Amino acid sequence: MKKLLLGTTALVGASFAATAAMAAPEVKIGGFLDFQAGFMSQDTDGFGPAPGVPSVNTERGFGFVTDTEVTIRVSDKLDNGLAWSVKIELEADADNANGTANDNGDEVSLVLSGSWGQLTLGNEDGPVDSKNYIGDAMITGIGVTGARGFRRWTDTRSFSNNLWVAGADPQNSSDATKIMYYTPTIAGFQFGVSYSADSNDNGRQRSEDGGTSSVGFENWWEIGASYDVKVSDDLALGFTAAASLADSEDTSTEDIRSWLVSAKAEFGGFTAAIAYADDGKSDTLKSLTNKDTSGYAAGLKYTTGPYVVGVSYMHNKQGANAGTEQNSSATAKFTSDVFTLGAQYTLGAGLVMYADTWYFTSDSDGVKSASENSGIGMLIGTRATF
């Protein structure tokens, strides 16, 4: 009997050891809820239920909006040193268009990493987005690079054709399904590359090759490099360069040939950044001339304790309008300028309050356009991150 008990104990111990070796990956649930009250006064009659959507009736000029997201993260590290993680971002706002919940995936990806670097599979921004320091110069989510401020409350239809509504934001594959690789950071240098088969590939949606219902861009490559160095205890510098290359599936549309450079400096409580980007003739009609798109953005913020204040400026231009208001021989130059000023206060762990105000103009030089617009806006908001 004693031998039987000892044998049973050994078997149970081995079972526990095997269970420990196969322990479940770590699962974390987080996200945020953002609430805004905003006011906008602009020359055109508002933007309707969503940015870029025309308004049938006269817009109220003020209102409330929310932005809510739930993030699920799963991670583990294998005995051979391979680390893996899964990120699932779910949009969790009520959909005002039909009054129902609109839960859907945003960025969904699997990341494998080790001493050799990092491999990402799925729906995630590529190097052109991640290797742009201008976002570091703004208060998070506010300013010309933030969708929660100027871009949400302004009628950006006036930003004709490819004029950007975010600072130094050239053509890129965004969250299209892709394979992406980043090298380890060595002596401050890092290199990244991504490939998307088709700009319309998104999760379960796989686009056909050049069909009329899914015309987009194929063989989309993004490459980027960065160099970060700490000069002293009080000064850190960073420099980046990135390019975006893709083939148009529409024979009447130019291929994507875009690039950007950016730099930032951190000194004391200050962060300053600047970026320049150029789309060239990317994604414009081949029948048009004088249509190059380029622009730059700059920002400065100061952080002290729970307080952050920041300013930013964006300017971009395009040689000719590819919209319906001008013919293919038009040579007007379209420009836009956006100035922002914002402040943020951290109430406690995970909870901030902020305010933002902006002034913008978008116009054409030489040819009068009904889509010209200018205005001023302001908002106050609170954001809870968990």
Tell me how many strands there are.
Answer: 18
Q: What about the largest sheet?
A: 16 strands, antiparallel, barrel
How many structural domains are formed by the residues? 1
CATH class: Mainly Beta
Task: Please estimate the helix content.
Answer: under 10%
Gyration radius, in Å: 24 Å
Task: Summarize the entry for a quick read.
The chain is mainly β. Helix content is 7%, strand content 52%. Strands 1-2-3-6-7-8-9-10-11-12-13-14-15-16-17-18 form a 16-stranded antiparallel beta barrel. Strands 4-5 form a two-stranded antiparallel sheet.
Chart the SSEs and their pairings.
Blueprint: H1 2-21, E1 26-42, E2 62-77, E3 83-91, E4 94-95, E5 100-101, E6 104-114, E7 117-123, H2 127-130, H3 150-153, E8 177-182, E9 189-198, E10 217-230, E11 235-248, E12 256-267, E13 270-280, E14 293-304, E15 307-318, E16 333-348, E17 351-365, E18 373-385
Overview of the molecule:
This protein has 386 residues and is mostly beta strands. The protein has a single domain, classed as Porin. Helices cover 7% and strands 52% of the residues. The chain contains three helices and 18 strands. The protein has helices at 2-21, 127-130, 150-153; strands at 26-42, 62-77, 83-91, 94-95, 100-101, 104-114, 117-123, 177-182, 189-198, 217-230, 235-248, 256-267, 270-280, 293-304, 307-318, 333-348, 351-365, 373-385. A hairpin with a 2-residue loop joins strand 6 (104-114) and strand 7 (117-123). It starts with a helix and ends with a strand.
